Amino acid sequence: MSSTAPPILRRTPLFERHQAAGAKLVEFAGWEMPVQYRGVREEHMAVREACGIFDVSHMGEIETSGPGSLALLQRLLSNDVAKIPTDGAQYSVLCREDGGVLDDLFTYRLDVDRYLTVTNASNHERDLAWFTAHAQEVPDVQVTDGIEDWAMLAVQGPQAREIVQAISDAPLPGRMSAATRRLGGVDVLVCGTGYTGENGVELLCAPADAPSLWDEIVRRGAMPAGLGARDTLRLEVCFHLYGNDLSVDRGPIEAGLGWCCKEDTGFIGSDAVRSAREATPAPPAEKLVAFVIDGPGIARQGNPVLGGGEVTSGTLSPCLRAGIGLAYVPVERAATGTRLEIDVRGKMRPAVVKDKPLYRKDS
Amino acid sequence: MAQASYPAELLYHPEHDWARIDDTDPEHAILGITWYAQDALGEVVFFEAPDVGTTLTKDAPYTEVESVKAVSDVVAPLSGEVVEVNQTATENPGMINEDPYGEGWLVKVRLSDPSEREALLDAASYIATLAG
User: Fold this and answer.
1) Does the CA dihedral A114-A115-A121-A127 come out positive or negative?
2) CATH number assigned to the domain comprising residue B109
């Protein structure tokens, strides 16, 4: 226990809903967030089998608008932003010149010259400063902080679309698309994206509208789910978590995110990413792999891998009923099937490198 | 077990452990974690019992329980040697949540200094520490 005064934590517009639902609230990236309501495993299985709803209003938003939007975003984001159609969505990383990853983010194209980029809570201020600084180099573009303008809910699971469709004035946008709809009488940006490996939508709305939207979706059968289940769900399908699996000390190639890097667009860091991809002068020494513990035990972030490397995310998989995780290991030991030994607080736990994702719908 | 409960017949350690000592067998104690500890941790998903023969030192960690999210040390309320472990809790760690004072016990120890029990708290004193 620290003797210093606790920091003032930010609260989302749904804070009172979480309290009323008996959530266990924890500090996360400066926000007071629900880590669980009824239990991580129960919430996890609700998302895999039916529908869960997450408050992810701690995530940040940056709006880029004006005729110079594409030029700026093409310079900042690793993916080919020109390929996003109006109402489309795209995943990318934000790199430094040396290729180190500043953040991983989704960008939604709301209109011809208007884009909304969703940031990780812990990176929002840094991202905003990065966007704003580079906007000075591009004519006719405005960068606006949207964090106060938007609340964000994720509705995920095989029944998620059906539940949200029932309160929508028009068909929901498909996967990797985004469009404004009236949901239960309020305007909502509905995005066909998520962080669970399930079908579903992410909903961006005005903070004042979030409580009624939450209530209506819960009333229709979505189970409130916390950050605990969000983490186990994403790890089963091997989605990266910034601060665990991504950092400024790692590039996108070693992180397995080469697929969202289009070096020909000339984004900041593209030279470093190209060098890593082409292994000139040398390939990255390590690679991010998925593993399953062979036997009892749960590896955790920071556990060393025997012979080099370390675990960056680890948990118990509710679906696989085994310890799972992601780890950076030397490239020569990164092949599927390679046996690893992980030092879990002094006990050696055998593990096996597996193909990603670790969990598949039909497995 | 949904409601907080602290049985009067147990002895408590402020690090949220309990000890059950039968008057007819004062050389042995059964140990476990309290309702408060299991509630704070959330669903226990992993418990690997220490080996029989392991030496416990009062106030020092002797094993771990894990929830999905976190690992928590379990502190020994008394010193001694493990003579029996609860295989049921290893095979079904959720029992530590469901029945922390019964089927969810962790280990049985032979006490090396039975007088150490004088330093433990009764239920009312332990509950008072939780209010702080």
Assistant:
1) negative
2) 2.40.50.100
